[in-house]
Amino acid sequence: MNDPPPIGGAPEMSRKSYETVRRGLAKRRAAERRFRCYGLSAILLGLTSLALLFASIVSNGYTAFRQTFVGLDIYFDAELIDPQGNRSPESLATGDYGGLVKRALSKVFPAVSSRSEKRALYSLVSTAAAIELQRRAVREPSLIGKTVKVWLPADDDVDMYVKGHIRRGAGESARRLNDRQLAWIDELIEQGNIEQRFNKTFFTAGDSREPEQAGIWGAAAGSFFTLVVTLALSFPIGIAAAIYLEEFAPKNRWTDLIEVNINNLAAVPSIVFGLLGLAVFINFFDLPRSSPLVGGLVLTFMTLPTIIIAARAAIKSVPPSIREAALGIGASSMQTVFHHVLPLAMPGMLTGAIIGMARALGESAPLLMIGMVAFIVDIPHSVMDPATVLPVQVYLWADSPERGFVERTSAAIIVLLAFLITMNALAVYLRSRFERRW
Amino acid sequence: MQRTTLLLTLFLMAAAAFYAGSRRSLDIVRGHTRELHSLPSYYGYFTALWCGLPALLIMGLWLAFETSIITHLVIAELPPAMQSLPDERINLIVNDIRNQVGGSAFAGESDPLIQAAAARYQRLKDISAKALTVVVLAVAIAGATFARQRIRKEQRARNMVESATVVFLIVCSTIAIFTTIGIVLSVLFESIQFFERVPVTDFLFGLHWSPQMAIRADQVGSSGAFGAVPLFTGTLLISAIAMLVAVPIGLMAAIYLSEYAAPKFRATAKPALEILAGIPTVVYGFFAALVVAPFIRDLGMQVGLSVSSESALAAGLVMGIMIIPFVSSLSDDVINAVPQALRDGAYALGATQSEAVRHVIIPAALPGIVGAILLAASRAIGETMIVVMAAGLSANLTANPLEAVTTVTVQIVTLLVGDQEFDSPKTLAAFALGLVLFVATLILNVIALYIVRRYREQYE
Known about the structure:
The complex is a heterodimer of chains A (438) and B (460). With 438 residues, chain A is mainly alpha-helical. Chain A has 18 helices and three strands. Chain A has helices spanning 11-61, 78-81, 89-93, 97-108, 115-122, 128-139, 156-162, 179-190, 200-204, 217-248, 253-265, 270-284, 292-316, 320-328, 333-362, 365-369, 390-399, 403-434; strands at residues 66-75, 147-153, 194-198. Chain B folds into two domains: 2-155, no CATH class; 223-459, Orthogonal Bundle (MetI-like fold). Helix content of chain B is 78%, strand content 2%. Chain B has helices at residues 2-28, 40-77, 80-83, 87-102, 112-150, 157-197, 200-205, 229-260, 263-278, 281-303, 312-337, 340-348, 353-382, 385-390, 408-416, 425-459; strands spanning 209-213, 223-226. In chain B, helix 1 (2-28) packs parallel to helix 5 and helix 2 (40-77) runs parallel beside helix 6. At the A-B interface, helix 1, helix 10, helix 11, helix 12 and helix 13 of A face helix 2, helix 6, helix 8, helix 9 and helix 10 of B.
């Protein structure tokens, strides 16, 4: 640094203080750099954890979209599968299709003879195989009496082994497949009779105790019905409330109370809404437990504040000149709102509604309270059927001990996140496409 | 499905009433709309409202009380010996009857008495459904005819329709209040029942929590102790860990984004951080249980510490990540609200940027930041899925973050999920915990909202 400029009448003093400042300067600059560094690393830390979260979910889950199938030469033996011998669907429905699978397996491994070994061999193929064969036989009765190569779903343990989640290195007692089974699987792989194919079951089946038969379709349908109820109630009610509060409400204690209430409800823990639903809808009104109707009602109360707040912001952003123009040419205040303000505020309201729906889709805690955690195999067909929803399905599977459910849980999360990302992207698109600056 | 059909019929009738009403208004003035007080469509709405509203109201009330009334009637018909049974047994019988009606019970195996009651239940339900249809349709037709008769050319149809709309708007806006009242009442009633069996002081200050009640008097290990202190400390421990993660990271991120970051960086980093708030909590729970908890356990093993696989640390860390965006975006807002003049003043005195932040901007924004932190804390206390999936069930009274603790929300979930009788202290305890949770978060929220609002007004 250069010499200090002489200041006023006390050059001695200013020189001294200049020295003090200069001595501290390096330290202060270092502190500045450190501070800046903390800030940047805080952001990076947040983003890293986000990346880690996504990476761990995707790396655990992507394998679930493919499933292991075993190719077997199935002889559709009329004796076994058509007890009445008339090829009618009723008769075919009572056949022993598991027997077909067992025979085919025995033919591949003729050396297997003892009872326990046979059981170990048969357990390589999923129990769903029999159902699939039956479906096939009913659809194409011409197959009966012929030998056809059929690809059947493998048991989840086989699936895990083929995908590399069960290691040979671990002792026999530490894994769910014994050495003989591994040898059989290796032989099947060598023959080219084990293949990984697209996992259709995962997208079309309901829940199951067997990982290879479990799918998310039931939970997705439950989520759909729940969200339909939520949207049908919370959107009109939320908009009506927002219109009243923004356009018609007098400024008094009563409306203040409403406003404080809405802000508070937005911050009440979601599980408390579950308690409300349990006490009011299930115990007082006797609505069916586990139904999307009750789930939708609970989520309505939960998302209503979000929607009201967003809708109010949208109404507020419509300039008063629009209202004045409408009133000026003789519209009533109600006509002004419904014919002019509401259409202009609609994109903002829709954005808010979509964001509220996205939150409702990801919510699980209050739904646990009203019994949507039940193990439900059937696909729900109406809002009164017992159902579960996607996030609760994730929770249920995460609790299951089978290794096969870990990748299915992650895959269900991937599907859930895909829905959420789509909804949020839609909201962003709507906002950028229709948002108007006045 | 019959109800759906009825509802659809009602809507069709309302549409018809709309048409009839507007037609009639035009007929009265022979097509000269200028003689009418309101536009013809308002006469239509007027008729449709009279057609649909009363009928819809009756239908709603009917359906709300149908099941309980029928159940009462059926119970009243049961032999007196059955009626004098305790409530739980009667509930079981009612369930049997309903299963029988729904066809999910094996008809051959059940009691003839139940079968008779089920037949009666079914009959009453059929009668109720038919009566509902008749009543609703009659009311709808009567309403429409009445309104159509009343149409005159000087009638103020628009004003009537508009005041009906205003009433609808007011009703919708009060739902928020009714929700709060509903929460308070439902939680309070059950809690009062609970406190009749377990004294409040035992609940609030008891050190031992084991809600399993003995079914037999001599059963081991089911004392049924309801001392909630271990749950409170567990909740506070996990929330404190979460805040320790979220507050420094969130605050520094907010400072960097608002004071240092280039606009382009800010435009990408801010939404990216906010993604963290949009991820469902069940995903965080899975992440905590699958990745973070085993990682911490292994790490502890290498250092020679014994870490529980459901440690408070894992749940707290992940919860902290979840609430980073709550802290950062709220703090970002308040920091941005600090007037530029304060910054300029600090720079003019020779402060570096970080000195300006630390000595001027943060103190100026402090009330808002405290509000943001309180809101985040209330999130952490009420968070459920992460702790349900990653924290333990055993109520340990400890401050060691490496041990498993349980929280209020975990206990609510475990007490209420699965089979439950509605009157046992076990179930009621969940509502008492819910009350504590609601009150605690309410206080935090009110303080936070008050601080934030007051602070905002200061600079506006």
